[in-house]
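*** Residues and shapes ***
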Amino acid sequence: MLAALSIRDIVLIDKLDLEFGEGLSALTGETGAGKSILLDALSLALGGRGDASLVRNGAAQGQVTASFDLAPNHPVFALLSENGIAIEDSVLILRRLQGGDGRSRAFINDLGVSVQLLRQVGRVLVEIHGQHDERALIDPSGHRDLVDAFGGLEQDAAQLVSRYEAWADADSARLRHESEVAAARANADYLAHALEELQTLSPEPGEEEALSSRRQLMMSAEKIASELNEALDALQGEGTTGARLASALRRIERQATAAGAGSASPFVAVADALERVLSETESAREKIEETLSAMAFEPGDLERTEERLFALRALARKHRVQVDALPALQEKLAADLSAIATSESRAAELAEATNQAREDYEQAALLLSKARAKAAKKLDNEVEGELAPLKLEKARFLTAVDTVDLQEGGPAGIDRIAFFVAANPGTEPGPMMKVASGGELARFILALKVVLASRGSAPTLIFDEVESGVGGATAAAVGERLAGLGESVQVLAVTHAPQVAALAQGHLRIAKEAVATAKGEYMTTRVAVLSDEERREEVARMLAGQTITDEARAAADRLLRKSA
């Protein structure tokens, strides 16, 4: 509910701090006292249109702060969370700064936000119903939700949204597959030809590097072989280093045998060293011979290696990939052609899934439509039952349910719902804003709110002169219904009817006051919370007019006692 309202420098209000309680609170005062200013200020805090003219004359800027005490599970917290705003407790503070230059800034719990978000939040916190108000129940876009709330169909409506989304997703998958298959079929001949080329060549991973290295080796083979043969000649044959080392080793071994010193002979160490050198020399000779053997290429090997290497590179350029990517490309083309071959069965599966999702949606939409029609008829009966005491006994209320074709349905179903009224017998029902007068409109809205009670309602309802054009018993009936609403939600009623004011749990009087300053006198709007005795005088004033008589005070006592 609205817990407090603080206003600074808005029109005639220089400084005003108000606190509000639960139930029905009446706001009264003479015409022109500033009741509209109070509502304009609150509307500004709720994201209403700002204007430089709202700033009090002489002030640089105006400010309005509205504090709300809400249940932790109120939908507004989910809305704020979606917009990245976390609220630690259940207290919500909306603040609006209006500059004299026309610019304004919005805050939620001291966090700067857009005016658009402030307006969204304001709409779920407060509903303002008046003769000239075009929001809340007047807007047909919200009528379907109100019927769902009245009929207890919110869960069914949420399930329908899920089924519609499932249908849309299934249909999107089907269309996407059809598009992909169509594109593949149009390119099937090219795919087959490209795959045939790849299969003929049969590229292998890492083949380019191997072929390139072998080609380079073959191109250098003659020079390399000549140098290897020179090295081999140096290691074998008469007069070579190897032959001289072998001869020396034999002589050393004979000397070692002749000396007979055993392992201690110095000849033994020399012989061991010479044996190691001869062993390494033999190993080198074997490696040279192996290399020469490996380089003994067949005639035409170089040509064949170059032909395959260049063929691989040409195919890679054709497909704009690296040579090493050709094997993967071959696999992909084979898979694409296979997908075309199996696309019919996949298309049938997706079509079946789409049809099933559509049937699920259509079934749920038809059931919800029937339930809405039933709820709409019950709503009409209950609202019309409230019209007679409000001096609208000849009026008609009609919840128009226009059911469209299933193919035209959307997430919310196949029903377009709007509230129509006929204020007088013999006239065709039409939208409330076009058919009803100001006073009639406010009473139609009141009847609706009484029936809907807290269903789909903001926690705070404001009625601006809802009793306009009626008096006596009708005004009393209006007051009774406002008081009844106050049992489930907070209700603020701007009223001129003593019958309404007498039924309120709280009473605030709005009046103009002259303030003298060093710079001169100026007028400001003040709001006073009335005591029991002050309330008696205010109700008597509302009954009597300018001069309060004892008879008016007695009548006020009777009204107040009746409401107690």
User: Anything to note?
Assistant: The chain has 18 helices and 15 strands.
